[in-house]
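ugh ok so i messed up the first submission bc i forgot one of the chains. this is the corrected input, ALL of the components this time, i swear. 586 residues overall. if the numbers dont match what u have on ur side tell me asap before i send this to the collaborators (the ones from the other lab, u know who)
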Amino acid sequence: MSAGDLTVVVTSVSSDSHTWNLVVLQLVLEELGHRVHNLGACVPDELLVSECLRLRPDLVVVSSVNGHGFHDGLRLIGAVRARPELAGIPFVIGGKLGIAGPRCDGSRAALVAAGFDAVFEEGGLTAFRSFVAELTVGVAS
Amino acid sequence: MSLAGAGSFGDFVARAQRSGRLVVQPRMGVSDPAAMRTGLLATKHATATTVGTITLDSYTRMGDNANARTALATGAELNGYPIVAHDPAVTRAVLDGVAGPDFPVQIRHGSPCPQPIIEALMAAGLHATEGGPVSYCLPYSRTPLAESIPNWARGCDLLAGVEATGVQPHIECFGGCMMGQLCPPGLLVALSVLECMFFRQHGIRSVSLSYAQQTNAVQDTEAVLALRRLATEWLPDVDWHIVIYTYMGVYPRTADGAALLLEEAARLAVRTGAARLIVKTVAEGYRIPTFAENVAALQTAALAADHCTTITGSLVDTGIHAEASTLIETVVELGPDLGRALAEAFRLGYLDLPYCLHPDNAGRTRSVLDGSGRLQWARIGSMPIRNVVGPNGSAEMTAAGLLASLSYVERSYDSASLEQEYRAGLPAAAVNGREAGIPTRGSTP
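and heres the new structure output, hopefully the right one now
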């Protein structure tokens, strides 16, 4: 594994108390050589915004599996993109985002339109790794 | 061990255990009072020795009773019974003629702020609940331990007041179920005992110590026997029993695999002299189970328990007792107030849950599954168990390894179920499977 050297925030959404998904993502990112700040379960939007302002991460990974990820995700990305300081930080979201799933009901497009840079469905770890790898190349060059 | 008073939760379980019957219990909670009553009646009338459960909804767990009331007013369905939002008279009507000395009902929630819940269950005439200052705080919330611990102390003090009415109140600790999976047994056992000692310090004289089925039946057996020894040692003057939780991680998706895992949990309970079992259903891998699925699970577990006996001999000691004992002693030595000692132990990393992201958990420990499916420490952080655990040489957990570990039980039991179907009628294959630690359905203890 090459040292990626990105500062990455891994976070859940405000209503989601699951954490195993966050732990797996932390290990994935650490194995790619990145520094991870894992904010854990039930992260309020304000906390995510303040941590982003403090850490100025190269990437923010939002993961949710309780089915509220679509709604909570739309709200939180609105709060993030409303801050000009955070406008340029890549934000991605993934997990079990809703009952129907992003492919079925156009919610993927809605999440991207609201300000996410990428949306990953459950089982999309390979695509996620590729996304992160491209980001690393971008930073290094 | 003091006897729990007549009519209490502890007394019911003790009587069942004396007559050789395992008490089985579902997880069950719906917002509608009439449906909740139907579920309790279905549990009561199952062909098994049962106690009832009312599981509360997420809003009530988090103390958000305004949202729970709004949901009730608008008819929105909640994921449990909102005992604080419902009028006490409504809950008393749900329980009327159902709950009693022959069918105790326990309130299960998951709250780091349990006082309103305890007030509500007392107002409804109940006296048994579940939780703990650490176990209902660290895994699922962001609430600081510095708030959860005094909240639980006040909750215990409140519930202890029930004793004046002639019934012994009961609290089951969730400490032996921390994180649901991948926490090595020594730490689970220690937390279970420590939380029950905390309840005792706050006036509760009837408790149950939990242990959640993990990944290896032999290791689980050693762990529960260690839990019994330590409970005898540290809780000499209270009524206590052990409650086993059927596996809490990713659940098998085949019906046979799910039943196999439940039966293995029932056998674990009987073998180790545990008195009660929390069941899981065949629907667990997909969705919230129906009442009928719960009743079927209660009966499957009761039947498996009937065909099993308690172990009387001794087992190979891999050090679970010594590890748990060291952790308990370390916490006790931090000071006479167990609440403060627990907080201090987590601050210093003397207690440190693997993979727990809560800000009050040090997060310097890691666990792994070894080749035989036993949970082992890969990193112990600052936990004072170096001399007990020894160097185990386990490799660091990778993302792929973690994903595989999280689904280890699901894969083992689902493939055992398919294998069994394939080899139906070949008893030799089943016997070989058992020796290799692969579960088989309907095998003898």
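quick check: Confidence is low (pLDDT under 50) at residues 427-440 of chain B. that seems consistent at least. Residues 131 and 173 of chain B are 5 Å apart (CA to CA).
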